[in-house]
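Please predict the structure of the following assembly.
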Amino acid sequence: MSSQTGGYYLPAPSHWPIVGSIGIFFLALGAVLMMNDGGATATVVLTTGAAIITYMMFGWFGTVIRESESGKYNEQVDVSYRWAMGWFIFSEVMFFACFFGALFYMRVLSLPWLAEADTQALLWPDFQNTWPISGPGLSEKFTPMGAWGIPAFNTLLLLSSGVTVTWAHWALKKEKRAQLIWGLLATVLLGVVFLGFQVYEYAHAYKDLNLTLEQGAYGATFYMLTGFHGFHVTIGTIMLIVMLLRSIYGHFTPRNHFAFEAVSWYWHFVDVVWLGLFVVVYWL
Amino acid sequence: MEAAHAHDDSHDHAPSGLMRYVTTTNHKDIGTMYLWFSFTMFLVGGVMALTIRAELFQPGLQLVRPEFFNTMTTLHGLVMVFGAIMPAFVGFANWQIPLMIGAPDMAFPRMNNWSFWLLPPAAILLVGSLFAPGGGPGAGWTLYAPLTVQQGMGMDLTIFAIHILGMSSIMGSINIVTTILNMRAPGMTLMKMPLFVWTWLITAYLLIAVMPVLAGAVTMTLTDRHFGTHFFNPAGGGDPVMFQHIFWFFGHPEVYIIAIPAFGVVSQVLPAFSRKPLFGYPSMVYATASIAILSFLVWAHHMYTVGMPVEAQLYYMFATMLIAVPTGVKVFNWVATMWKGSLTFETPMLFAIGFLFLFTLGGFTGLVLSVVPVDVQLHDTYYVVAHFHYVMVAGALFSAFAGVYFWLPKWIGKMYDEKLGKIHFWLSIVFFNVAFFPQHFLGLAGMPRRIPDYSLQFVDFNMISSIGAFGFGLSQVFFLYVLLKAIKYGEKAPQRPWEGADTLEWTHLPSPAPYHSFEKAPQVK
């Protein structure tokens, strides 16, 4: 159903994109309704959207996997995927840069300004700027998250997972299928344990530390940065699980396995973001 | 790879009618959809603009409530930037890049389809926000906090529309970058690429870099609205000015995202009708890249009046002026391309020359605005409105018109009516100047932008401006007629209707370009 022109694989017409667009439309509309007290309608619309998108992802990625396994992609297609994944990760870097930028702006500029001469006298005369802090207009107290408990352990987990995924990659290149599967399984487990600790940490923060999203500068940047990171770890873990299943089914060859490499690039990227988080959110 | 291509007649089984366009993976179909979508949104945004101009025809409140006026200025900006101009140039990219570099299609045809089909849902959310409880967004297209934090459900719809538009742009850009870097015909080195392709490579890079930042900014707005964060609220250590910084870190490169492909189109059209190669091609490439890099370093010139330290103002002033250097290089090269050329003045050339004059004027007023003490006076006045409409309309839009008239013969295989095209040009350029030139005077005299009422001394120029705006709007309806007439009754176009055009689509492909082109890559010398 598709044309192969000059060797470059050009897919036939596909209905997956429009399915995805319909899904995204419902997802966005549902989210808007939910945030504006849409009640049951909102839940139905949101769930419909999410279900359609999940269906689309299974269908679309499934198609790509079948095409790849049937040898339709030549080396030029492979290079296309490499460029694309690299640029996609660059876009993700810029997304996180935006939230890191917000954190730096608050710590370096807006909080000190609020504690400075005129501003301080006019707005909150008693305000003293010390980090971590919620903000001059918020009175509730909270305890900041320490760096050397769970976060330090999580750092260790993620760094180890970077090692295991590389170990799996070596195995793939040397055609040691068992080592590939064990390496991926270990990576997935490390990712899952990391996420478990994140969930535990959030529960602990909300219940015991009174550290919530509403806690001004610290609360907002803490949850947005770690939250989006955790979301990316979740996606990465799901992708690793897919790679694990594909490895078990016998997909990939030592020469043709860019899906695996793309996932490991993504995983290393998530790892590097975490290091940044650990230093500027938890530690300093 | 075998030279004999084994394409198993997919296009014989391809869906027909509407489903052909819904499921298509063909860059030409997708390019066409982008262009028609963009023209539709151009008319929608145009109606909004005319609502604004109708209200401003006379002082006092005439037609609409102030809240609705705010919604019109906001949606006009968002619709024109994200719905009309950007998709127009992505349409050009889709049609032209594979043809100009000798590729069979874009690198990721299915993702290409999705990039387009994300636009209609986003447009429905964006324009549909008008019907949400509390009305559409009314904070200006720049979406400044804290106003955005206080508005109704329409703002949420806008935020999600922006997210979806951003996804579309990022996917489209990744596709374009990959196509240019990996799909060029043998022998087509980077420095042999037509300049239009170069400008899109640079634009796509800018898009991938800044669309995620906009996504982050509106996400913070969303959490401030609904989840209790204090990013833009000083009570929680945040700062509404922070939104402006993040927004303009996106917004200034965004200006070049719109302008740079326009430079690319003009750089194809001027040499073709001057029958001379583009003057100073390498310097054109370097100038475009310099503009792109500088665009990341000047964002705060949009916000001189927020109360930043004078050192910062000085830095942003000088950095902004620096952009005039590569831009000057480009204008010089365009003029030098025409110098001693065998010029003819068909419609594309007329629009390109109109671009050259009026974009340069818009650039000069930009230079005026870059001067801090002047900008402090002119900030948020109609002078700024005049300035950026010279860049966006007479710059980007005129270049898009030039491109449409230039490539239409290759796209549909038929010629437009030259006489009607010229009438469209003259109507556009005259009414454009009638609409926007007086706005310089209004701004210098102190009329603020985005206000539905004004004091009496501004009446005359506002009336003239409104008349010009309606004339300009009607001229674009005329453009639709010119297009439809060409599509239905146009004379058959030769392979190369412009004798000075020498890129691959003219030298290697018949008109109209076949549905599948360059199945075997051409050899570029």
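Residues 45 and 76 of chain B are 5 Å apart (CA to CA). Residues 1-12 of chain B have pLDDT under 50 and may be disordered.
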